[in-house]
Amino acid sequence: MALDATTITETGRPAAPATGGMTLQRFARRRSTIAFLMALPLIAVIAGLVAWPAGYAIYLSTLNRRMTSFIGLGNFEILLDSETFRMVIWQSCIFAITAVVLKALLGFWLAHMLHHIPTKGQRVWRGMLLLPWVVPPALSTLGWWWMFDPSYSSLNWLLTAMGGPSIPWLGEPGWARASVIIVNVWAGTPFFMIMYLAALKSVPDQLYEAAAIDGATGWQGLRFVTLPMMRNIISITVLFSLIVTFANYDIVRVLTNGGPRDLTHVFASYAFQVGVLSGNIPRGAAVSLFMFPLLATVAFFMLRGVNQRNREMA
Amino acid sequence: MAQVSIRKVVKEYEGGVQAVKGINLEIDDHEFVVLVGPSGCGKSTTLRMIAGLEEISGGEIAIGGGVVNDIPPRDRDIAMVFQNYALYPHMSVYDNMAFGLMLRKFPKEEIRRRVENAAQILDIKVLLDRKPKALSGGQRQRVAMGRAIVRDPKVFLFDEPLSNLDAKLRVQMRTEIKKVHQTVKTTTVYVTHDQVEAMTLADRVVVMNHGVIEQVGPPQELYHHPQTKFVAGFIGSPAMNFIPTRLVETSGALNLELSSDIVLPIPEDRIGRYKAHAGRELLFGIRPEHMTEVRPNDHRPGLASFHATPEVVEPMGAETLLHFWKDGHEICAKFDPGVAVEPGVRTPMAIDMNRMHLIDPKTDRVL
């Protein structure tokens, strides 16, 4: 019996010098090679649009204003010393956390309402309620800006018509912060709603029936069946929204442009302000890099919980 | 524990479709009643109305004497085992079983005692800390039963609980359910489409078809004395043979003319019962197990014999099934496996006419 190249290698003897063609063919046929080749376009996109800019931002953040010399963590030290920046961190956290909590609660409430509408009418409502999320945020925020306008505010017109006070929506720091959050909640709630609706639909009816027979009231069904069954979707949606909200730029930029007195700035709008408008690109890069460890920590714990529940339940 | 009374109960869906058409049923305390029938016969709907998961369109249902039509499931004091178990996937086995007691604010010690007791009965003590995902189908089924047992309810409801199990496990769990009922003796209503399950488990079987009850009775009674063609054909496996026939009276005796060459005499004790129908076209019903090989030393009265040519022979081990066709009707006979039978060879067969049934094809009722 003739021994081919493979047999020789498998028996432990030195491999016969295989032809280049053979090796390449075998290499190309390996599952891991094919997988890699198929993932290559995505890897290229991520490398080009995520990894490289991120690496470049890290490099930039270590340079001086004129980008001529390396200053190490200098930009970060200056930022942490700056009262304005500490305020930006604070405002970013308040903005993101308040907005995400409100979006999550409202989204859950809307999803629950929608879930109990018969399928026929549900589609119309679903479509209408999704609108704020579908409209480009810069445009819809412009609409809100008009509604908040000090002279022509339709909201104030309504308030005064009902005998209420006229509110300086974007002029007074507290109201300006609230306005930014309101617009973000308005635009982001539909995303939560649609995710939660999908999650609600995936809970088998029999679980509710079993709970009803076990003695659960509607509220107990929600607490002991619906919420635990939705925990993964809730976690992932909240995480995703937290990242997007933390990095929100357009709403602040269009509505308040960071004012009054830089009090409504969040990381992204402040990074743009410092880096592009004030021309200090390294420090702008440093501002934007601040988000990373914060979000990475949150993401780590949330995804760990998701994985654990997946292992136990799914 | 309690009686369940179903009085003139109707379930009508939107569009006027009636799933249950005014049924009456009294279930005694401690009784194990099985609702059986083909899919769409209304058995599951009936069970779900008892549970309170479906509204009752008409009539009333009483549990333990009190009408429960408007009482939500949680206040009916019932427990239910679902076809796909409906275990809470995020809770451990212990929590799944304890959930109902926890909602009813039982003291922790009492909950522990009951859960451990039920786990003991069902032999799932080692599984208490696991999540449902880590259990096999049979184990999940036990947990679902445990969840019902710990509640110590007035009534157990089972909705096709064994359908998702493989054949071997089904037989095992069937025995298990019967054993549990013998231990706890709770009134039980059990729904299945499998007549073997119905026959083996029930004190009384309720055969349903098209939203009405065809017949209620102990398993043996349904087997020996079916009242309708549907029950006759549904109970028993393989199903009863139905052969068109003519009842002929000749000089005081009655005969069944199956064809020109097969004429079977009606046993004497049945002549009075059938006499009025002489001359009519009827259906002759005979179970495969009452159509056997001819045994030389068997001289019981009422045995008739004829010849037929089986086209298919199925050796089952404990018995051999013979299939032959007469005027387009498939007929099945059950032979002893020791008798050599060849397909295509004319074979003598014996019919035990004492076990025959005559059915009026107009009313589908057994005469």
TrEMBL record, chain A:
Localized where?
A: Cell membrane
State the annotated membrane topology for this chain: Multi-pass membrane protein
Q: Where are the transmembrane segments?
A: 34-59, 88-112, 124-147, 175-198, 233-252, 285-303
Concerning Pfam families, the annotation shows: BPD_transp_1
| Domain ABC transmembrane type-1 positions | 89-302
Name any Gene Ontology BP term.
Answer: transmembrane transport
Xref: Gene3D superfamilies = MetI-like
CC annotations in GO:
plasma membrane
**This protein's UniProt keywords:** Cell membrane, Membrane, Transmembrane, Transmembrane helix, Transport
Q: Which InterPro entries match?
A: MetI-like (IPR000515), MetI-like_sf (IPR035906)
Q: Keyword 4Fe-4S: yes or no?
A: no
Query: Cross-referenced SUPFAM superfamilies, in alphabetical order?
Result: MetI-like
Q: Give the family from UniProt.
A: Belongs to the binding-protein-dependent transport system permease family.
Annotated PANTHER family = BLR7065 PROTEIN, SPERMIDINE_PUTRESCINE TRANSPORT SYSTEM PERMEASE PROTEIN
Q: Please identify the protein, giving its name as recorded.
A: Sugar ABC transporter permease
Report the source organism.
Dankookia rubra
Upper classification of the source organism reads: Bacteria, Pseudomonadati, Pseudomonadota, Alphaproteobacteria, Acetobacterales
From TrEMBL, chain B:
List keywords of the entry alphabetically.
ATP-binding, Nucleotide-binding, Transport
| Matching SMART domains | AAA
**Cellular component per GO?**
ATP-binding cassette (ABC) transporter complex, substrate-binding subunit-containing
What gene name does this entry carry?
ugpC
Mind telling me which CDD domains this protein's record contains?
A: ABC_MalK_N
Q: List the InterPro entries.
A: AAA+_ATPase, ABC_transporter-like_ATP-bd, ABC_transporter-like_CS, ABC_transpr_MalK-like, ABC_transpr_MalK/UgpC-like, Mo/tungstate-bd_C_term_dom, NA-bd_OB-fold, OB_MalK-like
Tell me which domain of life the UniProt entry assigns to the organism this sequence originates from.
Bacteria
The species this protein was found in: Dankookia rubra
In the record, the note on similarity to other proteins reads: Belongs to the ABC transporter superfamily.
Give the ABC transporter domain ranges: 4-235
Which Gene Ontology molecular-function terms are recorded?
Answer: ABC-type transporter activity; ATP binding; ATP hydrolysis activity
Q: Which PROSITE patterns match?
A: ABC_TRANSPORTER_1, ABC_TRANSPORTER_2
One GO BP annotation is: carbohydrate transport
Which named protein is this?
A: sn-glycerol-3-phosphate ABC transporter ATP-binding protein UgpC
